[in-house]
Amino acid sequence: xxxxxxxxxxxxxxxxxxxGLVFAVVDRPADPLTGATPPLFEVSAGVGELLLRSILxxxxxxxxxxxxxxxxxxxxxxxxxxxxxxxxxxxxxxMPSYIVAATVRSxxxxxxxxxxxxxxxxxxxxxxxxxVLIVVTAPLVQLIVGAxxxxxxxxxxxxxxxxxxxxxxxxxxxxxxxxRPAVGFSCLISLxxxxxxxxxxxxxxxxxxxxxLYLAVENQDVARASVLGAATLVALLPMFVAARAIRxxxxxxxxxxxxxxxxxxxxPRAVVATAVSVFFVVGLGVILPVVTLLIWVGDGWSRSLxxxxxxxSIGDTALVAVAGTIVTVALASLPAWSVSEEERLGRRKGWxxxxxxxxxxxxxxxxxxxxxxxxxxxxxxxxAEAYGVVLASGALLMVGYATRFVAEVFAPLRVAFGAxxxxxxxxxxxxxxxxxxxxxxxxxxxxAPGIVVAGLIGFNAIVKExxxxxxxxxxxxxxxxxxxxxxxxNEALWHDAGLAGLWLVALALTSAVLTIRWRKxx
Amino acid sequence: xxxxxxxxxxxxxxAYGSNRALSGVDxxxxxxxxxxxxxxxxxxxxxxxxxVAGLVSPAEGSISIDGRIVNASGSIVVEASERGxxxxxxxxxxxxxxxxxxxxxxxxxxxxxxxxxxLMAVTDLTGLANRKPSxxxxxxxxxxxxxxxxxxxxxxxxxxxxxxxVDAGLRAALGRVLTRLVRDEGVSVLMVTHDQDSALAMSDxxxxxxxxxxxxxxxQDGPPEDIYVRPATAEVARLGGxxxxxxxxxxGETATSALGTLALHAPRQGPVTVxxxxxxxxxSVDPTGNAAVExxxxxxxxxxxxxxxxxxxxxxxxxxxxxxxxxxDRGFVRVRGPVWxxxxx
Lengths: 522, 345
Known about the structure:
heterodimer; A: mainly alpha; B: alpha+beta; six-stranded mixed sheet; five-stranded antiparallel sheet; 22% helix; globular
């Protein structure tokens, strides 16, 4: 497959929203009454404070989830405390942050089922947002650091022991240098997640860039949105550069075919610390949200409130998620194939991979803004109606999903393509198989498990996605479950929000469990 | 007071769940001695080595190092970090984020640049002090691992399959470095290997482990010549190198076999199995002979012939400077010198 095809796909996905953001800055629209372009100081008022708060929140989340996730990874791979149950701490991965935030706020604040019992104050603000985002991102750290822990070499640690080192020194001298890139990288991923998140901060009333950017886009205040968007990019850029620098270290760390370290029995302090951390992550991240959603629904039934049928939203969600997944996987396959080919030939340059990660680093709100402005500009020559047609067709929504999640589905696809042995295709060719037969009998069976995993990851991400769905999907007339949860929650119709939320969680959990099972085959 | 040896193992036994790995193993390594543990896969030789290092807690028996009991009745008395032994891992296990010099100096209580540079010199690593392990060849990595293990001047050095990841060309050279270093450092060595050539060439003594229903056990303990020439069992004979095991009828100092009457190393009576090494077998060309050359391979210093004979297929070694028969030539197979006889056919 020619490399330019993969490069073009990624180039288009990166450049379209970025061009849109450039247009947004250039086009700062004139005031409809006075005809004057608003001065920059006017639209940028308070942006510095928002920027500072966004950075502070993301740093708190990065550090918090780094510590918690690393501990959970250690518990999973180095102790026997949880055994096979250690996967339960990964469950919050399937929970949308806005549902966790909404249910935590509702249940812990006065009037909530826990808040009333314990007499708690209103659970909103910076600290609560940080806690919710730590709970949601800690499993990401657990996964990344856990993969690194699994690849550490027992022989290296044993060598240090035999040379006279006590366990603490073995950890700092031998284990930690192996883990450091993974811990740093996963902290940055949590940091990027936190700075990009808009649902949880909006629900918990924390004025940060993404939430204000969403409001500006919703109010069609392009001038303000462009300044907020630029500020978000300023905050993101150093984090992205740092993540890029560390990513290579994560890939290099660990020993291929290393004999893994066997889990060891733990003391009572480790058991207590594990119990507290599991209670924190699973309790706040899964049990409390699900119970609260059930209470909302039960409350609606007991008061005979009218429910909006969820079937339409389930159908819309399935339609949007399946279509979005197909588009995303198809587009991600092009660079995944090119990168795996480069690796096979030993000419890995990495810029194509960087493009993939850059594409997905844009927060959903910023991405949606960029795509909207780009679509307005590009459709202008085709008449005033053209933009509306494009938006209503769902094409922009599909591009939004593909851009947002291309990196997530890229990783398993690259692994699947990379594992293909070109000699198998050559053998089939020498044995007389034509291109179609080679594709059907050798290529497809080889990469199919990887494609299924990529598809499940994409499906899960799209089902939970909020800002792109709200800003680009509204005009399509489709009302997905995430759209319905957000819409009903903001109108205080909690019974409806609860029902849609339960279906959403069920879909997300199912796809997450299937991903874990299929990953073993891929 | 009993004599204290660098290593003394008494009645060692261990199991992984329901799988017995070792049973009733007794072993002593004397001061300055190079002992190899030779045995097939699954005989528990690595478990034994890891037990001595303190990385496995054996269920039964005791281990003492330099007269100090480190394991007794299934519990660790002295932790691995306090045993003061050197261990070279099969996969070397160099710390990838440290330089070669940092790796070698890791086990030293106080930084000692002289000791590190001295060991680098004798292991041919001079000039590579600031390299990372990933920048070294396989042979250099192995020498660095050896230097790291020797740096704290252990009384006992444990080697776990040290030649497993080295090609045949490097093996002999590394073996020479190892034996020279061990002699210069005055360290006693216990080496685990399944490579009979290395064990025979380097060891003062070889302990052969067999696999039984109750896990690995010692089948023979003796100098390399004994293991090769006077094996205790047919398994030991095979572990020692290529051998023709032939049923024979012994009567005093000779035995009658399909290859004729054979002289024995030690008198025996009744049915026996004689152990004949290829270099003991001679093929003489004779058109009336009852054997024939079937195939031939060239091995630099000699040719190895495979001949059909009244005793079945027999390997014959012909030195490169001796006249060589052609494939298909007929002749007689004869055994030179005395052979070892095992009781029973």
